[in-house]
Specification:
single chain, 425 residues, alpha+beta, six-stranded mixed beta sheet, three-stranded antiparallel beta sheet, 13 strands, 36% helix
Length: 425
């Protein structure tokens, strides 16, 4: 379960690069400073701040500074750190905050520099700002339209307890453990000690729920749980793993009925219905990229310690037909990438075929990336009108399926801005 999240300031950084027209920013945001003075690469993303106020990142905190200053704010415990194996590398520390969004704890195993740069994830975003940025209010189903229960031959799973409509947000959760992805600069046994402390410093209810999650890879149990259930996230542009408790209960399907949407400014993960779901249906994610062929999917899934028995994989005929359609999509994308592809009629024919195949395969979440490719193709051919049309479609789809502040969405927004003429292509 991998998914990248941006450092907290990236959405504001993008806005700071755009010369917004008066009609683009609502009146109540006129006094928001989108690029305040700061001392490091992050800024508290979201809360409204007057232009005259300087905003700087929190001071770096580690085990030594906590002892010297007798302060380790905003963290709830003094950081515990380990030294790197090579001189000059950073320490690795555990930082814990027990009231993230007022409802959950979070322990972050990372360097002091990254922890300071990513401090903005602890801040509560102003809901007016967040609703404006995402272009719609976020409405999460309440009470939850699902229940977690034991499933035959599958362990725990998530089952719909009422009809769930397409695009309904059924869950919004935050990670309880975030840890640096590459632990090689530090001794393994020292990293395991930090991971243990990260777990025990969480609120008791979060720690107990974490211990109930599946673990399939072996080794120290907390490490195994994180490896088995985590999603990939970025803090200060460095790869980390993020463990989301309830979300980890969703089992895999190669044609899932749910997708995830992340907010880089909050580390929040939204779980959204891909289609209408009937009561009694299991809610499922895809643990692998949606466009992979069956053999590729099975190879990756075996790393989680099971063989997929979803409806697609259980039918050899359907699986073979699906592989043919997905292979054809890859062929068409390769043809679009050819330097000889200059005919508008030929491009449109391939576009129509790809969209048809995506619809048959349930690949709606990837259509935005496809429109980005086509927009860049038309831009290279000098047809800026068609390029802009596909760039707008890319932004629309990516806003919905990836999130308003995801890296892919921001890239598409930036490209659309270029096409509008603010920056010469």
């Amino acid at each position: 379960m991998r998914y990248h999240i941006l450092a907290p300031a990236l959405w504001l950084a993008y806005l700071a690069t755009v010369d917004a027209q008066p009609s683009e920013v609502p009146g109540w945001l006129k006094d928001y400073n989108f690029d305040p003075p700061r001392e490091c690469s992050s800024d508290h993303a979201g809360p409204l701040n007057p232009k005259e106020t300087e905003s700087t990142c929190s001071l770096l905190v580690d085990d030594e500074t906590a002892f010297e200053r007798r302060s380790w704010q905003p963290w709830m415990f003094p950081p515990v750190c380990i030294e790197p194996e090579k001189p000059g590398d950073s320490k690795l520390c555990v930082f814990t905050y027990t009231k993230l969004r007022g409802e959950t704890g979070i322990s972050i195993v990372t360097t002091p520099e990254i922890a300071a740069a990513a401090m903005g994830v602890l801040e509560d975003p102003d809901p007016r700002w967040e609703n404006w940025a995402r272009d719609r209010p976020l409405v999460v189903s309440h009470p939850p339209p699902y229940e977690v229960r034991e499933l035959k031959d599958k362990g725990m799973g998530v089952i719909a307890n009422r009809t769930i409509r397409k695009d309904e947000v059924v869950m919004l959760r935050y990670p309880v453990i975030v840890r640096v992805m590459d632990p090689r600069p530090w001794k393994h046994q020292d990293v395991m000690k930090l991971l243990h402390r990260a777990a025990v410093q969480l609120p008791a209810k979060d720690g107990l729920e974490m211990l109930k999650l599946a673990h399939s890879k072996g080794g120290y149990i907390i490490d195994d749980i994180v490896n088995t259930n985590s999603f990939g996230v970025l803090l200060d542009n460095v790869d980390h793993s993020g463990l989301y408790l309830d979300v980890s209960r969703l089992n895999h399907a190669c044609q899932p009925n749910m997708f995830s949407r992340f907010s880089s400014t909050t580390l929040g993960m939204e779980v959204v219905a891909y289609r209408d779901i009937e009561p009694g249906e299991e809610l499922t994610f895809s643990y692998t990229p949606l466009n992979l062929l069956s053999e590729q999917r099975q190879s990756l899934i075996r790393e989680w310690g099971f063989n997929c028995t979803c409806s697609l994989c259980s039918s050899p005929d359907e699986s073979a037909a699906s592989d043919r359609r997905r292979s054809r999509i890859q062929e068409l994308l390769a043809e679009l990438d050819s330097p000889d592809m200059r005919s508008h009629a030929a491009i449109q024919k391939k576009v129509d075929e790809i969209l048809s195949l995506c619809a048959k395969e349930g690949l709606a979440a990837q259509v935005g990336d496809f429109h980005t490719i086509v927009a860049e193709l038309y831009s290279g051919l000098g047809d800026l009108n068609l390029a802009r049309r596909h760039a707008e479609l890319a932004v629309k789809e990516l806003m919905h399926y990836a999130g308003h502040d995801h890296e892919r969405t921001l890239s598409a927004l930036s490209f659309l801005k270029k096409l509008d003429g603010s920056i010469k292509i």
